[in-house]
Design brief:
Elements: E1 44-48, E2 54-58, H1 76-129, E3 140-142, E4 145-148, E5 151-153
């Protein structure tokens, strides 16, 4: 503290003690009766204090600690990791089957397209290069040339 600062002198105060006045029976209002009574009446305990007063109330049973549960042999984290691994393997297997199925389906479609091209190409080749049946047109032989349906053929 600085030497220039001076604290005021403490003042003495009288100690006041407040004592509550006991209630007289005339001022006590009885509590209304509850419409539902409990099935069993709890036990009531009375205690005599050193000054002669009597305190009455319900007894409170001691708190019982919750029983300890046995720990599982394997931790929950290990179980979750194992289940996650099994799920991952199931998903990987399903994806492998799905990709195999898609590849097989693509190969089947490719083979069907090639087969259709070979059959259709063969049909076109037969139409172009095959023997043409006589279509019933008028044939006129002039100097070893043939007119058939207004087309000149040698």
């Amino acid at each position: 503290m600085n030497p220039e600062q001076h604290l005021p002198a403490p003042t003495l105060r009288a100690v006041e003690t407040h004592r509550p006045a006991p209630t007289t029976p005339a001022t006590v209002v009885p509590a209304p009766l509850a419409p539902i009574q409990p099935g069993t009446v709890p036990t009531v305990a009375s205690i005599v204090l050193p000054d002669g007063r009597i305190v009455t109330g319900y007894t409170v049973s001691a708190m019982q600690p919750e029983p300890l549960t046995d720990k599982p042999a394997v931790s929950r984290a290990a179980v979750n990791v194992a289940l996650g691994g099994v799920g991952f393997l199931a998903v990987c297997g399903g994806l492998l089957l799905l990709t195999t199925f898609i590849a097989a389906l693509a190969a089947l479609i490719q083979q069907l397209v090639i087969l259709a091209a070979v059959i259709f190409g063969g049909f076109i080749a037969v139409q172009v290069f095959g023997r043409r049946p006589d279509r019933g047109g008028t044939t006129v032989n002039i100097r070893k040339a043939v007119f058939k349906r207004n087309h000149f053929h040698r």
